[in-house]
Amino acid sequence: MTYNKNVKKYIKQCKYLFASYGKSEKEYIRKLIDNIDDGSHDMTYDEVVERLGTPKEVIISYYEQEDMDRLIEKAKVRRLLKNFLSVALVVLLVFLCYKAYIYQKTFEEVRDSKDGYFEETIEVKEDYEIK
């Protein structure tokens, strides 16, 4: 289905206001779209708001009718995932800093050996005969 920019704007604002956007939220948005679609695709934004309410009111009504235990469980999982990713990022950062330190020390050892100069030795073999 194609909608005008006002309906798309309304749906986008509703999606933005969800704390998380999962399967049940997508289903709710589909039902919301079905309520908007009455064959007249020339609705203004104010007409959509008048018909369904502001995006904030729509999201509040969604959370009022949802099971509170399920919402709390989703929040816990999201917080746990966020904490895990934060710890993983810190561990990765520490590891990369350690590797950079090791590479820097190795570079300094190589640079400081032989006073920072490389010696090139050319050997000439006298046994070579030209025919």
Question: Which properties best describe this structure?
Answer:
131 residues, mainly alpha, 5 helices
Description:
Helix content is 69%, strand content 0%. It has five helices and no strands. It has helices at residues 5-17, 23-36, 45-52, 55-65, 68-112. Helix 1 (5-17) runs antiparallel to helix 2 and helix 1 (5-17) crosses helix 4.
**Main beta sheet:** none
Tell how many strands the DSSP assignment holds.
0
* Share of helical residues: 55-70%
Rg on CA atoms, Å? 33 Å
General form: elongated
Sequence stretches where pLDDT stays below 50 over 5 or more residues: none
Report the β-strand fraction as a percent range. Answer: under 5%
Q: Determine the mean pLDDT.
A: 83
- For the record, give the distance between the C-alpha atoms at the N and C termini, rounded to a whole number: 88 Å
Helix/strand/pairing category: mainly alpha
* Secondary-structure element order, N to C: HHHHH
**Total DSSP helices:** 5
